[in-house]
Design brief:
heterodimer, A: mainly alpha, 15 helices, B: MetI-like fold, 2 domains, about 0% strand
């Protein structure tokens, strides 16, 4: 019962947020002073303007326009790019998988480093190595990811010439969105390694701190003393007994971060020239393609909200303690 | 297994937090402003030297270094703004010096310690003037965020009930869009709204966009903080004496919330500096020729491989400034022993 209620509440929240996001992006363009068409296509011809005016239904009242806009959105019609006439949905289906893969790799790398570091610093809490790692983490948090991106592409890319500093090759996910793009996994990995590391570094510091503090609490629990009394090795206690109960917060935050990584990926993609959503946004701003920009904002916001919703939901289902607490 | 020292972990997780609680907790541990992306994710408050520092202890080397750095940056920013450091014109180009500098392929140029950018403009006055622009935008945005977000948060936390539910809901909805995307959309909108002739200066547009994005973040933290103080006995005592809500809010709760807010403000300025940089790279920064650290990076990003000094010098300034602000925020928090519980 409780679960159903929670889900219902969350669903309602989801709908409100989605309405807000669409209304926000819709109004951004409509509220601009003057003729909206001059803002949307400042360099457009008169004929293009007339078509646009009809497309946007500017003669109708605002609420009807919004309703039309929502209907179109639900049917997957995100509008057209005005300079080329290409449907924006095509551009999204090309760029979305690129960004998604980048985020998945970044998340993976971040956890790969953060978990051992978190365990180590919790185990050695208060020692010199713990302090050294923590201080480095503190410094890393002050490092903006675009600064890191520029440093890495200069030193690792241009000076050492280990990895390319820009470009992209399709990976395993692209083909599901656009069948013409066959995967080239080795090139794909080469292109995305640096960007993924860049995006991961800030997360490592965050996750590590989180795991460390939870782990320290866990290590003071009775069942750890029990495990020690049984004579289990430290390795086994840390990895098999302590890690699991300590990782709940970490996994939740990591899940919720998939959404927040979307924002970070935008800047990273621009610097590394990866044709994901971020680069598309940059280009849309540059060429003043407001309808296109609006669509990306909506897509990202919807994605962000859905991911958060899903993680939150999953969390309730997966954690038996919460499930039981809510059931009783 | 070695003895586990008491590291002051005050969160009980035995009961298992809900996802939302965990998220809120992250927001707290990481300065509460970690809304978006590695980029805006700043300041693990407890990280680093803080854990060993005791309340009332003298400032460490790091804190003094941070104060010194901030003093230096503010000094050069002001000197550049009043025209002393820029020797007249920050936009003057020297053709002989273009793209030259430390680390550059073409080598350094005599008389220009930090080299020149791709237009042959001396880096020193530009970095100094850039400091002014970046600080102006960041401080302006944070001030805006605090005036609106802080007030709303204070009201929400203090009043509770329906007002609280509505305001908190509003904050959460505003936070449902990644902040950098939100800021970008706002800048694009405001640029369009102010027209070609520019009713709003580019700096003002950035201040508004970043400030608006900061409102829900700051609002939530202020709410949490004022919520705990509003439940204290002296508030009850004041109420018993017949004080009006507004008076209690301003005279009793606000002064207690302020130290926490000051620490958050320092972190937020750091975040805003980074946000300005990110927006500049996304092509919506301050309009050239006015330099800001962000648009210096954005403009000469294309020369990264041949003349890396241009981008690196601005990057380093951003890094050290944000690091200093994080450190100072951390020190302030430790000083006042700021704990935000009660969510």
């Amino acid at each position: 019962m409780e679960l159903t209620k929670t889900v219902a509440k969350r669903l309602l929240q989801l709908v409100i947020v989605l309405l807000f996001v669409t209304m926000f992006t819709f109004l951004l363009i409509r509220l601009l002073p003057g003729d909206p068409t001059t803002t949307i296509i400042p360099f457009g011809t008169d004929a293009q303007r007339a078509v646009l005016r009809q497309d946007l239904g500017l003669d109708k009242p605002l609420y009807e326009q919004y309703a039309d806009y929502l209907t179109n959105l639900l049917q997957g019609d995100l509008g057209k790019q005005y300079n080329s006439g290409r449907p924006v949905i095509d551009l999204v289906s090309q760029s979305l998988p690129v960004s998604l893969q980048l985020m998945i790799y970044a998340q993976f790398i971040a956890l790969l480093f953060a978990i051992p570091l978190g365990i180590f610093t919790a185990y050695r809490a208060g020692t010199r190595s713990d302090k050294a790692i923590n201080t480095s983490a503190f410094a890393l948090l002050a490092l903006p990811n675009f600064v890191l991106a520029l440093f890495l592409s200069y030193f690792v890319g241009a000076q050492l010439k280990w990895l390319p500093t820009g470009g992209y090759a399709p990976g395993w996910l692209d083909q599901f969105f656009d069948s013409s793009r066959s995967p080239d996994l080795i090139e794909h990995a080469r292109y995305l390694l640096l960007p993924a590391i860049t995006l991961a570094v800030g997360q490592i510091a965050v996750y590590m701190r989180l795991l460390r503090s939870d782990m320290i609490a866990t290590l003071q629990e009775n069942f750890i003393t029990m495990a020690k009394a049984k004579g289990l090795s430290n390795q086994r206690i840390l990895w098999r007994h302590a890690l699991r109960p300590s990782s709940l917060t970490l996994l939740t935050v990591a899940g919720l971060n998939v959404g927040t990584l979307i924002g970070g990926a935008v800047v990273i993609e621009v610097i590394y020239g990866i044709p994901g959503m971020g680069l598309k946004i940059y280009q849309a701003v540059f060429s003043k393609e407001y309808v296109e920009l609006q669509s990306y904002v909506v897509v990202i916001a919807v994605l962000f909200v859905l991911v958060n919703f899903f993680v939150d939901f999953l969390y309730t289902v997966l954690d038996p303690r919460i499930r039981r607490a809510r059931a009783s | 297994m070695p003895e586990l020292p008491d590291t002051g972990v005050d969160d009980e997780i035995g009961s298992g937090p809900t996802a939302t609680e965990a998220f809120e907790r992250e927001q707290h541990e990481f300065g509460g402003v970690a809304g978006d992306s590695g980029l805006l994710q700043v300041g693990a408050i407890e990280a680093g030297p803080a854990s060993t520092r005791r309340r009332g202890a003298g400032l460490g080397f790091g804190a003094w270094a941070a104060i010194g750095w901030m003093g230096f940056i503010i000094l050069i920013a002001v000197l550049a703004k009043v025209g002393i450091l820029t020797w007249g014109d920050a936009n003057e180009s020297f053709a002989s010096c273009a793209r030259k500098g430390p680390l550059a392929d073409e080598g350094g140029a005599k008389g220009f310690l930090l080299g020149c950018d791709s237009n042959g403009r001396d880096m020193i006055p530009r970095l100094a003037l850039g400091a002014w622009t970046s600080l102006l935008v960041a401080v302006g945005a944070v001030t805006l965020g605090f005036i609106i977000g802080g007030t709303l948060g204070l009201i929400a936390g203090f009043t509770g009930g329906k007002t609280d539910t509505i305001l908190t809901g509003m904050f959460n909805v505003l936070l449902s869009v990644p902040v950098i995307i939100m800021a970008l959309a706002l800048v694009a909108f405001l640029q369009g709204a102010s027209g070609e002739e520019g009713a709003l200066s580019p700096e003002m547009i950035l201040i508004i966009a970043i400030g608006v994005v900061a409102i829900p973040l700051i609002g939530r933290i202020t709410r949490a903080s004022s919520l705990t103080w509003a439940q204290r006995e002296f508030v009850l005592a004041s109420r018993a004496q017949g004080a009006k809500s507004r008076r209690i809010m301003i005279r009793e709760v606000l002064p207690n919330v302020l130290p926490a807010m000051f620490s958050i403000a320092l972190l937020a300025i750091g975040i805003a500096i980074v946000a300005e940089g990110a927006l500049a790279i996304l092509g919506v920064g301050v309009r050239p020729p006015t330099p800001s650290w962000g648009n210096m990076i954005a403009l000469d990003r294309g020369n990264l491989f041949k003349s890396p000094h241009i981008v690196f010098e601005a990057s380093l300034l951003i890094f050290f400034t944000v690091l200093s602000l994080n450190l100072l925020g951390d020190v302030v928090r430790a000083r006042f022993d700021v704990r935000e519980g009660g969510l």
